[in-house]
Amino acid sequence: MGGVSSSATEFRAGFACFVGRPNVGKSTLMNALVGSKVAITSTKPQTTRRAIRGIVNRPDAQLVVVDTPGLHRPRTLLGERLDSLVLSTLTEVDVIGFCLPADEAIGKGDRFIAEKLAAVKKTPVIAIVTKCDLAGRERVAEQLLAVSRLGEFAEIIPVSAAAGEQLDVLARELIARLPVSPPLYPGGELTDEPEQVLVGELIREAALEGVRDELPHSIAVVVEEMAPREGRDDLLDVYAQMFVERPSQKAIVIGPKGARLKDVGSRARAQIEALLGTHVYLDLRVKVAKDWQRDPKQLRRLGFYD
Ligand SMILES: Nc1nc2c(ncn2[C@@H]2O[C@H](COP(=O)(O)OP(=O)(O)OP(=O)(O)O)[C@@H](O)[C@H]2O)c(=O)[nH]1
């Protein structure tokens, strides 16, 4: 627990990331800490595929939160790439938050992650028992005990992102483990993720709505271009391509007479307009990129770098 006790007047700044099985509430927690919607949340696992940063600015500290994808056993090449991304993130941050939901028993997946974390010796790990609003007091107490048996943690903190409970305690403990440093991102921006990536995530989220069971991980979105319309300062043209793996999936995404795609486009457009505060014209096309999840060249094109 090095670096916890020191003068309260010193400014601290650094990086934190959250790990945990899919669906344990990492994105929701990050959004609650940052106080604005930055990552994309969903009721289905593995929607977060990129390290999206949110920044918590305080008078005495700046905490840069790197939201990592769910750490899981690799199944496809995409899975392996996600995991190597996660592992390299773990060694680069100042503190790790390991999320375990209060309302589910600790399982194989949690133990797998606990083992990985034990190997990352240099970074302190704070265990976070999430979704405490879904469990009674007794259940939360049992979970805290179970978590304490799972590994060596700097702290174990129960929180509820939904109810806004204990978020200040969590932020304090995360910040206490950051190095003394001036702000890393002056100016207080909430996110350093390029706008195009966020826009792509919003489109993907809209496209997944209603077809998650049919196409769980088969949709990728690339925003090719974003530019203000010539002669207009209130309209942004966005050109995006949605990739699916098979022609049958293309048919699902487009829907009868294009109705579904039209709906996806108008929902995504509303979200993008809300994010960027300008009118948006969205040109959205669907392409088949055969088995993109398994093809290294396609993965690079779609933004999953080595
Ligand atoms: N009741 C309750 N639900 C929560 C809380 N936090 C998250 N959830 C719900 O749990 C589900 C998963 O939350 P996410 O934040 O997307 O989980 P994640 O761990 O980021 O998931 P991946 O991106 O798949 O790794 C969503 O339906 C959330 O609304 C909480 O504190 N209380």
Automatic annotation (TrEMBL):
Alphabetical keyword list: Cell membrane, Cytoplasm, GTP-binding, Membrane, Nucleotide-binding, Ribosome biogenesis, RNA-binding, rRNA-binding
Any one of the GO CC terms: plasma membrane
Single GO biological process annotation from the record: ribosomal small subunit assembly
Main location (coarse class): cytoplasm
Record region (G1): 20-27
A Pfam short name: MMR_HSR1
Membrane topology: Peripheral membrane protein
GO molecular function terms noted in the UniProt entry: GTP binding; GTPase activity; ribosomal small subunit binding; small ribosomal subunit rRNA binding
UniProt keyword GTP-binding, yes or no: yes
Region of interest (G5), ranges: 159-161
Positions of the Era-type G domain: 12-180
Primary role: An essential GTPase that binds both GDP and GTP, with rapid nucleotide exchange. Plays a role in 16S rRNA processing and 30S ribosomal subunit biogenesis and possibly also in cell cycle regulation and energy metabolism.
Subunit structure as annotated in this protein's UniProt entry: Monomer.
Entry similarity comment: Belongs to the TRAFAC class TrmE-Era-EngA-EngB-Septin-like GTPase superfamily. Era GTPase family.
Protein name from the UniProt record: GTPase Era
